[in-house]
Amino acid sequence: xxxxxxxxxxxxxxxxxxxxxxxxxxxxxxxxxxxxxxxxxxxxxxxxxxxxxxxxxxxxxxxxxxxxxxxxxxxxxxxxxxxxxxxxxxxxxxxxxxxxxxxxxxxxxxxxxxxxxxxxxxxxxxxxxxxxxxxxxxxxxxxxxxxxxxxxxxxxx
Amino acid sequence: xxxxxxxxxxxxxxxxxxxxxxxxxxxxxxxxxxxxxxxxxxxxxxxxxxxxxxxxxxxxxxxxxxxxxxxxxxxxxxxxxxxxxxxxxxxxxxxxxxxxxxxxxxxxxxxxxxxxxxxxxxxxxxxxxxxxxxxxxxxxxxxxxxxxxxxxxxxxxxxxxxxxxxxxxxxxxxxxxxxxxxxxxxxxxxxxxxxxxxxxxxxxxxxxxxxxxxxxxxxxxxxxxxxxxxxxxxxxxxxxxxxxxxxxxxxxxxxxxxxxxxxxxxxxxxxxxxx
Lengths: 157, 275
Hints:
The complex is a heterodimer of chains A (157) and B (275). Chain A contains four helices and six strands. Chain A has helices at 3-7, 43-56, 61-81, 118-126; strands at 20-24, 29-37, 87-95, 98-107, 129-136, 143-152. The radius of gyration of chain A is 15 Å and the shape is globular.
């Protein structure tokens, strides 16, 4: 339960809180998967990844900033639901005109995050579409709770 | 800048007072060292710009230095800025003075053992990107992209990325914050107190008192973004701060709300509500 474990994500601590990053796909539509301990202190990595993707895809600065906020909000909700000692996994995808995030945790809860909350309101304002789902996990009794969101390039109307 | 009429008014009036002093710098540059008029101009310029120094000093006041010391250090920076400013270089005095004053205050913190961690080069990048966002937003009528920022600034995109990221990575006060005059934000806009805006939000009973605890400015920004569908750039323009500053404030406010909601009104996701 050391605090440092949750805070330092860039140093080379060989423990499980070290984010694990996998890249795949073509440059045009690459998927980045990042897994960290399901703790609030780990979310900086997720913000950084989505910010970086959106920036390099040349999204406008409002969209980049909104995506960071959205990831923070979505992941925070999930971390709150996560089973103790479990992981938060985010899959980021950028395909030309859209950035999407699929974030999931293992949870003892059988319900998805509620949609009538302030938090959901925030998410809906930040992303173009937000959806959530729950399905049974491989571990007996647990569920995988997921939030998916997509945000496109702002139309230059 | 002239054509940015009504929407740019707030920002304009804030700097107008200082803009009017610009001719004095031209005059100061032209009078000889021996001319008594020189000392007169110099003190007038320093005195008139003192609020800038005081404002910067105030912004650092939470770091454990006495306000008096900070103001003194900032004023020294201001005097240096007045002495060294060259009106022929085409930048306005504030753009030159603020970094100079900040530098003085930072040096003071460094000397007294307080580290302000953002490296100077990064800070400069951050600031130029920040002000380019505001200029380009006005020109384009929307938020610019990193490529547009790079073109506008004549720097490469990697540097734009670094400048953008610096705003997220460092919490040290940046110039845009230093120049923000919270006192000038009109109060009592009745936003966030309006029930209809929270009508669809089930946990509004928990939210409302929290919104009440927020700074007026932070509440306005929150409501503008999430209940009025304004973009961060539009909010920045309306409030008179930078887009990156809006972004940081939103991020901080949301995190604060999440914390408070969690501690005061724990979620019960599995329980369906009664009727």
